[in-house]
Amino acid sequence: MAGGAQRAMTSREWSLLLLLSLLWGGSFFCVGVAVKELPPLTIVALRVALAAAILWALAPLTGARRPTNADAFKALAVVGLVNNALPFALIAWGQTRLPSGLASILNASTPLFTLVVAHALTTEERLSAGKTLGAVAGFAGVALLLGARVSAARTGALVAEIAVLGAALCYAFASVYARRMRSLGLTPIDVATGQATAASLLLVPLALIFDRPWTLAAPSAATVASILAIASACTAFAYIVYFRILAGAGATNVVLVTLLVPATSVLLGAAFLSERLAPSHFAGFALIALGLALIDGRLASRLNAGAR
User: Fold this and answer.
1) Burial class of residue 218, CB neighbours in 10 A (0-12, 13-18, 19+)
2) pLDDT digits over 36-52, tens only?
């Protein structure tokens, strides 16, 4: 999170934040549609390849540039693997066994993992008492989500939940690693475009080898529309919106989208995929949301200011 004083967002920035929550929440919904007909590896390969093509096509408008040195190429390859290829594949595979809303709730644990990873691997972001309390509350929520599967002896679903949590852990490592990008002369849009390209170079050959997509039955119009939407809107356009908010409102404000994405995903899944979540899922998310609020610190600051 960015340092310094935290300012209130404008109505325009709130609108962009809500739009981003729709885009990222919609990604879980789109995957939920596509996994009914296509293998997860093919879905994520199409997602990153089409997104990379769109981002490069928009490069004259966004200012995206290709890296100019070997260190930048290597860094983008690492981020492409840890921030796109691995987590996208883990989430898509997890959604073959999980409702899209539950997958998005599990993914909301990303800031919790980021907090722990940053504490372990950096010297400037150490755990404070408030952040530690928030992490404990958040991980209690994760344990509650997993506990329902353990008690029901649903091994397949439990493994799928662990896979989605693995994706959140990947995002955490990527977030810490990506902080070196500025020192390599890469702008945020350079990173977004470069990581999608690197992920494509990895995933497309793997999908061709293992899924042999030319042997699959022709997908329905709904699946084709979902793939196009997840690549163009939920990945390429979402990156542009994300970095626009980041530049104006800062990292601490943009992380609020983590709390909005599950709500979007749950509503879409219930409305169009007939998904239903158990009370324990909502209780688990409530604990995760409480943990994030404690980590963010704004709620406590406002309560203290009101008391004074």
Assistant:
1) exposed
2) 999 999 999 999 999 99
